[in-house]
Design brief:
Radius of gyration: 23 Å
Number of helices: 9
Distance between the termini: 37 Å
Order of helices and strands: HHHHHHHHH
Largest sheet: none
Helix content: over 70%
Number of domains: 1
Strand content: under 5%
Length: 219
């Protein structure tokens, strides 16, 4: 997957999930509260992707996903940094100095230097981005699932336990739980596995350059 497509889909996916989770409310309103004009239905259907993109953009700007993924993002980056130091550092260093370098972005710059300058690593990078979409999408599903589960719980209090909101809330709650507790952790493990494969390629083909660049960070 190309980076531009990844960025676009990271806006469309949460917007699409948002619209999907809104459908029970839309169906209840159109069947019980008011009638929607056919032209409005056509407009919603025709511009669904654009509406999802706008909603997804607003969702992304709120940085909720970034906060949700902060821990797993750090886990992925720390694994890369640890492996680069393990195979690239050729001089003895204090733990304090190693932690100082790891806390900076310099090691990630070295990592991406190799990725951007090797055709095989670029191809592997596409697989990483494919999994990256799964990583963020499962987080989106978990976040929005939790939010909408509470929304439908409140609606049940107003419209009664016989309303469509009971089944909708249960379904959305289950989707959010499965996504957050099972699918998201699996995508993180896959991300680490793919980055390990990239590092393995770097070690095999660019060990000398890796050692030079990593060791230079400690001078």
């Amino acid at each position: 997957m190309e980076l531009t497509n990844l960025k676009r889909l990271r806006k469309i996916v949460p917007g699409s999930i948002f619209l999907f989770f809104c459908m029970p409310m839309y169906q209840y309103a159109t069947h019980n509260l008011f009638v929607v004009d056919e032209s409005l239905k056509f407009t919603i259907g025709s511009y669904g992707a654009a509406i999802a993109f706008v909603i997804g953009t607003l969702f992304s700007n709120l940085k909720i996903r970034a906060y949700r993924n902060e821990k797993s993002h750090k886990l992925i980056d720390d694994n890369i940094k640890t492996k680069l130091i393990e195979y690239g550092l050729t001089t003895g260093q204090t733990p304090e100095k190693i932690d100082e370098v790891k806390s900076s972005k310099q090691l990630m710059h070295i990592f991406y230097h190799f990725i951007d300058n090797d055709a095989s690593l670029k191809e592997k990078g596409k697989l990483v981005r494919d999994n990256g979409l799964t990583w963020t999408s499962t987080a989106d599903m978990a976040i929005l699932g939790c939010i909408f589960c509470w929304i439908y719980f409140v609606l049940i209090l107003f419209f009664g336990p016989e309303s469509i909101f009971v089944s909708a809330g249960l379904m959305i709650g289950c989707l959010g739980l499965i996504s957050g507790a099972i699918l998201h952790p699996r995508s993180v493990k896959e991300h680490i596995k793919l980055s390990d494969e990239q590092i393995g390629f770097i070690i095999t083909n660019y060990r000398s350059e890796l050692q030079t660049r990593v060791t230079a960070l400690f001078i």
